[in-house]
Amino acid sequence: MTPQRTYVTTTIPYVNARPHLGFALELVQADVLARHARQRGEQVRALTGTDDNSLKNVLAAEAEGIGVRELVDRNASAFQALRSPLALSFDDFIRTSSDPRHRAGVERLWQRCTEAGDLYRRTYSGLYCVGCEQFYQPEDLADGLCPEHGTAPQQVAEENWFFRLSRYTSQLRDLISGGRLRVEPASRRNEILALIDGGLHDFSVSRSQTRAHGWGIAVPGDPSQVIYVWWDALGNYVTSLGYGTDHPDFARWWEGSSRRIHLAGKGVIRFHAVYWPAMLLSAGLPLPTDILVHDYLTVDGRKISKSGGANADPAELVSEVGTDAVRWWLLREVPRSGDVDFTRARLVERADRELAGGLGNLVHRTITMIHRYRGGVVPATTDTSPEVAELERVCAQAPAAIDAGLADFDFRRATSSVWRIVEEANRAIDATRPWQLAKAERSGDARAAEQLDVALAALHRACVSLAACLGPFLPTAAALIAAQCAPRGTSQCGVLPASQALFPRIGSS
Length: 509
Prior knowledge:
The protein has 18 helices and 16 strands. By secondary structure, it is of the alpha/beta class. The protein has a six-stranded parallel β-sheet with strand order 3-2-1-12-13-7, sandwiched between helices. It has a four-stranded antiparallel β-sheet with strand order 5-4-6-8, covered by helices on one side. A three-stranded antiparallel β-sheet has the order 9-11-10. Strand 14 and strand 15 (302-303) form a beta hairpin. Helix 4 crosses helix 10, helix 11 (314-321) crosses helix 12 (323-333) and helix 16 (434-442) packs antiparallel against helix 17. It is elongated. The mean pLDDT is 93.
C-alpha cells in the first residue's frame, strides 16, 4: 500500500531585514506537522524560503545605500541559517529572485491564467500600502490607516494588469464553506467567508517597471510591467516542485499529495485563502487542502516585525537559552487563536519548570533509580499495579491525542498530551515510592521486590513513550531520551547508560 503523501509549506517572508521570532513560530509549527506526518509513515515534503522580489526589499536596500542583490542575498542567508538553531527538517528552500525553478513556473502560471481569459489590462487609481504590498479599498482602512501596519497608504495611479478574481466568488465560497478547502481555525474561515460575501474585486497583478525599480519578474509579453509580488510569491508553492519545467516532482507532490497544507499568519490570509485558490482555479490546478492560520506574537503588546522596532531575533535567542527552550515555548505558549506576548522571562520560567524541573528531572530520576536499585538493568516484567495503571493509560492514549491536537492545528493541546505523561509519571513515583520498596526489599520482602520491578518497568516505558511522543516537538531532546532509555546491548547485560542532564536550568545560568 502506497503511503499517504503530505506537502507542508510556510509563507515566504520578505527579506528587507533579518528574521524575527514571529516567523520562527511558523517555521516550528510547520516542522512539527512534517515530523509528525513522517513519524506516522507518510511521505512528506516540507518547503520554506524567502520572497526576494518585493518593493520593500528594494526600499530597504536604498535606505542602506547598497544594491538590492546584496541586501536580499545577505538577509535570505539569515533565514536559511535558522535550520540548525531551530532544529528544522525542511526538504526544500526556495528563493524567488535566484532559484532557476521559480521564474519558469511563474511565467507558466501567468500564461495559463491568460489562456483562461482572466488577465486584462486597465488604468487604476487606489490606496497602496508598501508594507502589505497591496491595494486597499477605503472601507478596509482603520481611520484611514492600514489595519496591519498603522500607516497611511499611498495614492497610486497607473496602468496595470488585473486578475478576474470576481469570476470565482461563488466557487470559492462553495469550496470553503463545504470544507473542500479547509481554513482553520473556524474564526478565520468565517472571516474569509464574510470577505467573499462582501464582494470580491478584481485585483492588480502587475506593477510598472518604474515603480518596481526594475526588480522582479517581467510580465510575459509586456516588459514594461513587473509581476506583482504576491502573484510571484504565491507561485512558489508550485514552482518549487518544478511547475513550468515539467519536473516529475510537481505531479508527485502537488497533484499526487492527499494533503497540501499551507501555514500562514492572519495578516496574509486574504492572499492564501482567496487570491491563491482563485489563481489555481484559473490555471486548472488542484487547490491546497488546508490553510492553517496562526495569530501573532507581540512584544509589549506590539506585533513583532522585522523593521517595526518590536523584534526578537530567534538565532540570538537560541544562543542564549537553547533550541529546546525556544521550540517548547512557541508550542506550549501560543494558543490556537489569539495573539500572545513574548517575554524572555516567560520563556525561561516555562523551560525551567517543565523541561528542566519536569521532563528532564523525570528521566533523570527514572534512570538513576534503575541504576541504584537494579544495576542499570530494566526489569523484564510486564505486570502492572493500581499505582501505575493511570500512567499506562495516559501513555497508551497519548499518540491518538497528539494526532487529534495536530489535526486541529492546536499545538498547545498536542503538547499537553505529552506533558500529561510527565505529570502522571511523577504521580506514579509519589504513589509507588520506589525508595521505600527498595528498603523493604533489602529487609527480605519479596512482595516489595516485585512491586519495585513493576514500578521501575512502568516508569521506563513511560520515558520511552515520552521520547516517541516528543519527537515532532523537541527532536533533539527526544533522541537524547531515547538513547538514555536504550540498553547498551547484550555484551553489557542490557545496562542503561548513566543518566545525563537533558535540560540545564536557564534561570540560574
